[in-house]
Write a structure and sequence with these properties.
The complex is a heterodimer.
Chain A lengths: L1 H18 L4 H29 L3 E3 L4 H24 L3 H20 L11 E3 L1 H31 L7 H20 L3 H19 L5 H32 L4 H6 L6 H14 L7 H5 L5 H10 L1 H16 L3 H21 L5 H22 L2 H32 L10 H4 L1 H15 L4 H15 L3 H26 L13 H19 L1 H17 L9 H26 L4 E2 L14 E3 L5 E3 L13 H25 L3
Chain B lengths: L3 H32 L9 H11 L3 E2 L3 H21 L4 H21 L3 H32 L4 H4 L11 H14 L27 H24 L7 H23 L5 H27 L1
Helix pairs in contact in B: 1-3, 1-8, 1-9, 2-8, 3-4, 3-8, 4-5, 5-7, 5-10, 7-10, 8-9
The chains are: A mainly alpha, B mainly alpha.
């Protein structure tokens, strides 16, 4: 238990130190040591917990901590109100005041005598998985951020250098995430949930441009809206049902538990940027890359799907589950269609994140054992590969000045190491036999077993669109232009993080059968409270291993075989107007012109605004209708 | 040993598929020619062509193209081996996607307009047929309760009795997969390609020969999927399956010779439309019946 407390509190301490550190050298040391400590402690804690195997819960009486949290809530509310009024936005302030008002009334004045004391901290294997994701990936991103932000501020001298604040917020966020995943008490989870919302808000607005301010307030009100649902849900759960912890919520057998479940699921949907709440994630891309990587792809949005995965057993077969599954599947498909239309690297990554979260959401909504298995696997692989991709895109942007995919033509020649890391990240997102593909395969099987035709359709069509935009991008970076390799401008700490991610990615693919057998299988038993049959049969596992071997061996053999063959270099065929330098052609006036070969973006066929408009209405309809039927069915 | 027959089938596939595939390509050209009122080349012409190509000089933009061609070939063989070895059909289709990706990458490496446009069109083709392929696997699972090819082929009744709609959908997208008019957007065997040779523009000599051989392997795999709809535990189903495969391939040749190439929007809309109508409704009915 001490480890859990340490992991929650230590990042806050590091945040305070970093907020006061103006010197870059000192900051580096603090960040590196804090990250190393967090990773070491988290790994030690995770290994001991996995070995001992039991789910544990701690901390029954917590009056002092509860009071501190209440003060924290009020502080957050004051912060939000002040900033909202400063920037003339009333809605977030309103949401915050109403929510905090409810919580204050609930904590101080409501009759909570009918509730038995329950534990506040909890740890099972799913907690361990989340702990590793947050600790390892989160800390590595903080290390990456040191070098990245130095380059960022060298390039963007128009922005104020607020790095003490930025790093402080990064570690505040890490502490809040640990708090969220280790807590089982609903009020505690709510408190840490709100901290993540506020830190996301503050980090998006880092550059203080008009666009950043607008997008940060959008993120704030959307997340606060979810938090409001969470607040009402937890109040209902305790006052009407006597439930104080998430675990009690899942195992409670009464039909009225669907009401807090729907509300908590709603909160999960907003945090994970599902339609109609996707705009905040897309707008969050204005923030510097480390915050995009940390908050908006690898960790914070995982809090939303983590909550949904926890609720999966109780959502299964209910209207709440239908709501979540339909929104998830719909989001998966629409977001992947829209990703085909973007050429800005971070926009593609944002849509891809929303899309993958949609798939995990759909898996949670269906709530079957196989889908939860697939959802957790997706979550793990997505966290690593998306974080890797954001970091490489950020490094490319700092190095070349552009994050547009069209400008990454031939990256394998100019910056081979970055391109390779990026390629591995892209391959990890959609190719067999990498982890994401295995999860999609398991999810599809589970959807067919659940007889859910809509989700099957979403997955079938969404897979097609997904492969389109990733392969496009891969082709662009693998192009062989006549350029030579340019000197590396990415700092060592960025490479440390990118390299670690790449190694993790490859290791996870190679050890996937072990992960499935020793981590995921027992985790399912924890979540469902009973022993479950193996999700992946032995012959399936065998084929996966064969494919992995094939994927490793075939290119290597191919390289050896084809490197001896005699080939002649030639020019491209351009109907006789070739200049011979592989990049230009002779136009009709006889002048040299650069040959611009762009990817396909469906510019004339897919109108992003229109699609977003109809998708937001469609998803809202799903939430409203299913939510009303779910709640109305038990009232 | 449990896997003996699987391994035998895999070895037979690896050795015979290019021979059968080349023969199929030759028959294709003969029948096409007869439809067009010509005499047509010998049925073995495709082998002569590939042999000639191996003797020609290989011109590349970059040496690494050859490596990707090899990867494409190896992955298609691997995929076919998985299918004929009787393994999971969903994985087979996902592996086929990976293999197809290598083909797209080969063409994108060159800074050549025709090659790149061909690669983009190939991606749109993949976008069009991929959902139906996944629904084929889903359909087989719903109808037979298994994703494993060896179990699907050993059922009491042929899968097509449960999956007529899915079968129609598969034959429809087969036109795209086999690169037949009206859906031969990225590259074509015919001479009317407005993008020169499209995705294969920058491939020559031995590399182009390997692409041809890869397509033979892929075609045999696709015909195998068609046959899977017919195969059941009785011995005579093999004969019926071969007849059906021949009929389907003849149908594709007929479509090829009677339809003009369409624009990508038409290909995309018709493919997704057929997938939605035939694939979804068939599976929905199956879900209802199987309850």
């Amino acid at each position: 238990m001490e480890f859990m407390g340490f992991l929650i509190l230590f990042p806050f301490l590091a945040a305070v130190i970093l907020a006061c550190t103006k010197n870059d050298g000192v900051r580096k040391v603090v960040v590196y040591t804090s990250s190393a400590v967090i990773i070491a402690v988290a790994i030690y804690f995770s290994v001991t917990r996995l070995v001992s195997g039991q789910a544990v819960s701690y901390l029954e009486s917590t009056e002092i901590i509860d009071i501190i949290m209440l003060c924290g809530e009020v502080f957050l509310m004051i912060l939000i109100v002040v900033l909202s009024f400063k920037h003339k936005r009333l809605f977030p302030a309103l949401l915050s005041i109403v929510q905090t008002g409810f919580i204050l009334w609930f904590e101080l004045f409501s009759d909570r005598s009918g509730v038995s004391e329950a534990t506040h901290l909890f740890c099972d294997r799913l907690t361990v998985v989340m702990c590793l994701i947050v600790a390892v990936i989160g800390s590595l991103i903080c290390v990456y951020a040191v070098g990245y932000l130095r380059d960022y501020h060298n390039h963007h001298t128009e922005y104020n250098d607020r790095r003490p604040f930025f790093f402080g917020m990064l570690f505040v966020f890490l502490g809040a995430m640990f708090g969220l995943i280790f807590s089982s008490n609903l009020v505690w989870i709510y408190f840490f949930w709100e901290i993540t919302s506020v830190s996301s808000f503050l980090l998006i607005g880092y550059t203080k441009t008009d666009e950043a301010v607008t997008n940060s307030f959008r993120a704030l009100w959307m997340n606060l809206l979810g938090g409001f649902g969470f607040c009402i849900g937890l109040i209902y759960a305790e006052l009407v049902l006597g439930i104080t912890t998430l675990q009690q919520l899942v195992t409670c057998g009464q039909s009225t538990v669907i009401i807090p479940v729907v509300l908590l699921a709603f909160a999960g949907l907003t945090k994970s940027a599902q339609f109609p709440f996707s705009k905040w994630l897309l707008g969050a891309m204005v923030a510097p890359t480390p915050s995009s990587a940390l908050l908006h792809s690898a960790t914070m949005v995982k809090a939303g799907v983590y909550l949904l995965l926890r609720l999966a057993p109780v959502m299964s077969g209910t209207w709440a589950g239908a709501m979540v599954a339909l929104v998830g599947g719909f989001t998966f498909f629409i977001a992947s269609v829209l990703a085909m239309t973007k050429s800005d690297g971070k926009s593609v990554l944002a849509y891809s994140t929303i899309s993958n979260l949609g798939l995990i959401t759909a898996c949670a909504g269906v709530g079957a054992i196989q889908t939860v298995w697939a959802g957790v696997l997706l979550m793990i692989f997505h966290a690593v590969s998306k974080s890797l991709l954001f970091q490489t895109v950020g490094a490319v942007e700092n190095t070349t000045g552009s994050r547009n995919i069209e400008d990454m033509n031939g990256l394998i020649k100019t910056y081979p190491a970055l391109a390779t890391a990026m390629g591995i990240g892209i391959a990890g997102m959609f190719l067999a036999p990498f982890g994401m593909l295995i999860s999609k395969w398991a999810a599809l099987k589970a959807f067919v077993d659940a007889d859910n035709i809509i989700l099957i359709m979403c997955l079938a069509f969404g897979s097609a669109t997904t492969l389109f935009y990733w392969t496009k991008w891969l082709c662009k970076i693998l192009a062989r232009t006549p350029k030579k390799a340019l000197p590396n401008k990415t700092s060592a700490n960025q490479w440390c993080s990118i390299g670690a991610h790449t190694v993790m990615m490859i290791l996870m693919c190679l050890t996937f059968p072990l992960i499935a057998k020793y981590l995921l299988q027992p985790m399912l038993a924890d979540i469902y409270g009973k022993t479950v049959g193996t999700v992946l049969s032995r012959s399936d596992m065998l084929i996966m291993i064969f494919m992995l071997i094939a994927f490793a061996v075939i290119p290597a053999v191919g390289y050896l075989v084809t490197s001896r063959v005699k080939v002649s270099k030639s020019k491209e065929y351009i109907a006789g107007i070739n200049t011979g330098d592989h990049e230009n052609f002779i136009d009709s006036f006889g002048d040299r012109k650069y040959m611009n070969l762009s990817n396909w973006y469906f510019v004339n066929s897919i109108n992003e605004k229109k699609w977003l408009y109809f998708s937001n209405w469609g998803a809202s309809a799903i939430i409203i209708i299913c939510g009303i039927v779910a709640i109305g069915g038990v009232l | 040993m449990k896997y003996t027959w699987d391994i035998v089938r895999i070895i037979v596939y690896i050795i015979c598929a290019p021979l059968l595939g080349g023969l199929l390509a030759g028959v294709d050209r003969k029948v096409t020619a007869r439809m067009q009122g010509r005499k047509g080349p010998s049925v073995l012409q495709s082998f002569y062509d590939v042999g000639k190509l191996f003797n020609k000089e290989i011109l590349t933009i970059s040496r690494v193209q050859y490596m990707y061609v090899w990867c494409f070939l190896a992955f298609v063989i691997f995929t076919g081996a998985c299918f004929f070895g009787g393994f999971d059909i969903l994985l087979v289709f996902f592996a086929l996607t990976t293999a197809a990706m290598f083909f797209v990458v080969v063409a994108s490496i060159a800074n050549s307009p025709f090659s790149r446009m061909g690669a983009m069109r190939e991606l749109v083709q993949m976008l069009s047929y991929e959902p139906m392929l996944i629904l084929v696997a889903v359909g087989f699972y719903k109808a037979t309760g298994s994703f494993m090819v060896r179990e699907i082929a050993a059922q009491e009744t042929s899968a097509i009795m449960y999956l007529p709609g899915v079968f129609v959908g598969l034959v429809f997208i087969l036109t795209i997969k086999l690169r037949k008019s009206p859906y031969d957007l990225s590259t074509s065997h015919h001479a009317h390609q407005e993008m020169v040779k499209g995705i294969t523009t920058e491939l020559s000599g031995g590399m182009f020969a390997l692409i041809e051989i890869t397509h033979w392997y892929e075609n045999i795999l696709l015909m195998g999927v068609v046959a899977l709809f017919i195969l059941n535990c009785h011995w005579w189903s093999i004969i019926v399956a071969l007849v059906v495969v021949a009929l389907v391939y003849f149908l594709e040749i007929l479509i090829d010779n009677t339809c003009a190439r369409v624009k990508w929007n038409v290909m995309f809309k018709t493919a997704w439309g057929v997938t939605l109508v035939f694939g979804t409704i068939n599976i929905l009915i199956l879900q209802y019946l199987m309850k």
